[in-house]
Amino acid sequence: MLHSREKSLFSLTHVSKLCLMGIAETPGCASLLPASLFSSTNPGDRPGMLCSFKISTAWSCAWCLNPQADNCFSTGLTRRVLVTNVVTGHRQTFGTSSDVLAQQFATQTPMLYNGCRSGEIFSIDVRQRNRKGQSWKAIRLFHDSAVTSIRLLEAEHYLMAADMAGKIKLWDLRTAKCVKQYKGHHNEYAVLPLHVNEEEGLLTAVGQDCYTRIWSLQDAHLLRTIPSPHPASKDAIPSVVFSSRLGGRRGVPGLLMAVKQDLYHFSYN
């Protein structure tokens, strides 16, 4: 049994030693926390919050791991993107034509990828100065519905994106073309994440119907559908994570599923 925290999270981006977190009970704030906060069960051993940034109307956030844009995080706002340097406090603003619901930084290039309510996906070179027009958009892709999640694959030649029509597409960033579609996902209005495990060759997503679906990355075939152990409802959509080695280096592949206050384990073979 896993007891839930008192405050719910709307977005959390993990880095090697820091976590960037948004909390539903304190809207308009992004907090920077040490990752060790989540690794200790003793409250006395937990360090406190490092810093908090007042940011209004935030839909998404992402931490940059690229050394060319070190110490920066981005927040997706209503019709704009805000990139903040946590050391200097310097901010860059990029105006957009739609709310930014999903974000991810590349690690090999200083690019920030954004998914919008309009269905557009675009990238920004964060070395640029503030611009109000659209000329700074390096790559532009389009879905027919609001984009709720984006995930760059490891080599960063491909990007996975999901939308509010339940479509999941794999885009080739070199040609700006969709090369695969993963069918069966269910979504109409929720911001739901994608989970990519390239080591096992799997894509995992939880639908608005509370079913967890696992696809083959290679051929887009639906491998497994797992119903929620709880009755399906919009406030009980499971949160999942897939690991190739649950429990450490000698662990075996498996899926962890959290629903309300319960934690479940599903073996994978």
Automatic annotation (TrEMBL):
<dbReference type="GO" id="GO:0080008">
    <property type="term" value="C:Cul4-RING E3 ubiquitin ligase complex"/>
</dbReference>
<protein>
    <submittedName>
        <fullName>DDB1-and CUL4-associated factor 4</fullName>
    </submittedName>
</protein>
<dbReference type="InterPro" id="IPR052254">
    <property type="entry name" value="CUL4-DDB1_E3_ligase_receptor"/>
</dbReference>
<feature type="repeat" description="WD">
    <location>
        <begin position="143"/>
        <end position="181"/>
    </location>
</feature>
<dbReference type="InterPro" id="IPR036322">
    <property type="entry name" value="WD40_repeat_dom_sf"/>
</dbReference>
<dbReference type="InterPro" id="IPR015943">
    <property type="entry name" value="WD40/YVTN_repeat-like_dom_sf"/>
</dbReference>
<keyword id="KW-0677">Repeat</keyword>
<dbReference type="Pfam" id="PF23761">
    <property type="entry name" value="Beta-prop_DCAF4"/>
</dbReference>
<keyword id="KW-0853">WD repeat</keyword>
<dbReference type="InterPro" id="IPR001680">
    <property type="entry name" value="WD40_rpt"/>
</dbReference>
